Amino acid sequence: MQWLRQILGIAVLNGKWILRQPLWIFQSFIGVIGLTITLFAWGSSLALSNLVVAYLVIGSWGLGLNIVAQTIGWNRVGHAYESYVASPITLPIYFLGTILGSMPFFSAHLSTAIVISILSQMDLAFIPLALLLSLISLILGAFLSLSIILRLRNPTNISAITNPLNTLTTILPPIYYPLSFLQPVLRNLALAVPTVPLMEIGRWLAAVPTGQEIALSLTSLIVWTVIVTVLVAKKLRWGLE
To answer: Per-residue pLDDT for 241 more than 70?
Structure first.
């Protein structure tokens, strides 16, 4: 069980700032609840079904791209990363611990998604697979962000990169509105944004109408996973560099 204690230790160290200022979590709940009310007022129950998928899949994307990646980036800037490298822990344990320490931010999305699913009488059988997709989304988001911020010449610009990148990949693409809203040509272009195939797969799992064949989304997701994994592996090293 040593590896479990190590993961918990990393989670506590990297999550202390959340415990010191829990108003960040309160802000997340307010934002999620407000968006739920807004979309229900304009789009009724179908909008809520799509929102459940967005909260599970895109909520975890933002967690990885913004919070997890920023934590790792600031650890490197503050030289805490070197301390972890010199310790007995491994890179996977460090990464998992960082994710676990950031999970309070996902609680607003997860709890709200479950409540909406129950109230709207959705088939809850999709939840386990959606959570697995959420984990993939989180890791992919973190890798995409890290592939950029680890190459910054001025590392203090971390937040200036991750925040706009999160907005660009979650607000503009067809996440909170259906992919079918776009013209057929634009639908294929939209699948080049990693959050779009993630949402399409999530919609498919939840039996929410999709805008393209699921095979195209899977292909896009696989390509993105390979690309960002290679990019991060070249920069996020463990040991003597």
So the answer is: no
Reported in sequence order, the residue ranges of 23-105 that DSSP labels E, i.e. its strands, are none
* CA 87 to each of CA 6, 59, 181: distance values in angstroms, whole numbers, following the listed order: 10, 32, 51
CA 203-194-181 angle, 5° bins: 50
Tokens of residue 76, six digits: 């490197």
Token readout for 7 is 């993961």
Can you spell out the DSSP letters for 131-179? HHHHHHHHHHHHHHHHHHHTT-SSGGGHHHHHHHHHHHHHTSSTTSS-G
The backbone torsions φ and ψ at residue 226, rounded to the nearest 5 degrees and listed phi first, read -65, -45
pLDDT higher than threshold 80 for residue 157:
no
C-alpha 86/C-alpha 221 separation (Å) is: 34
Q: pLDDT tens digits for 104-117?
A: 889 999 999 999 99
Q: Given pLDDT bands bounded at 50, 70 and 90, which one contains residue 74? A: confident
Alpha carbons 76 and 117: distance in angstroms, whole number: 40
